[in-house]
Amino acid sequence: MRKSLKKEVVAPGKFKFDSQGLIPAIIQDYKTGEVLMLAYMNKESVRRTLKLGKTCFWSRSRKEYWVKGMTSGHFQFVKSIAYDCDLDALLIKVRQVGVACHTGNRSCFYRKI
């Protein structure tokens, strides 16, 4: 028997962040469904993303916030944000301007096993 689908809206403060205060965010092209990249967000970067309408992440290596495209011009304009059933991952659909990967590839997932 199939469960009925429920649509819920949850405040960002309810998300389950890891021990470092981070939640993974899968970035996907809103038209094609192509997965462009994976990055991490904390509560503040989620707030900034919602306010700006552009993706903002927390850099684990540099320990600072970064808005995708601020230096490259390859912005990601947010179309929708969804969260998974456990509240511990985000799926952000974007309109990608230019490429998503710092290597110059459209997607960070350009290699195959």
Q: Could you give the topology of this structure?
A:
Blueprint: E1 23-29, E2 35-41, H1 43-52, E3 56-59, E4 64-67, E5 76-83, E6 90-96
Give the H and E element order. Answer: EEHEEEE
The number of distinct β-strands equals 6
- The neighbouring-strand order within the major sheet is 2-1-6-5
Mean pLDDT level: 92
Shape: globular
Helix content: under 10%
Major sheet attributes: 4 strands, mixed
How many alpha or pi helices? 1
Low-confidence stretches: none
Structural class: mainly beta
What is the end-to-end distance? Answer: 37 Å
Instruction: Specify Rg, calculated over alpha carbons.
Output: 14 Å
Sheet-strand content, in percent, reads 25-35%
Summary of the model, kept short:
The protein is mostly beta strands and 113 residues long.
Task: Explain what this protein looks like in three dimensions.
The structure is a single chain. With 113 residues, this protein is mainly beta. It is 9% helix and 33% strand. The protein has one helix at 43-52; strands spanning 23-29, 35-41, 56-59, 64-67, 76-83, 90-96. The strands form 2 sheets. The chain has a 4-stranded mixed β-sheet with strand order 2-1-6-5, with helices on one face. Strand 3 (56-59) and strand 4 (64-67) form a beta hairpin.
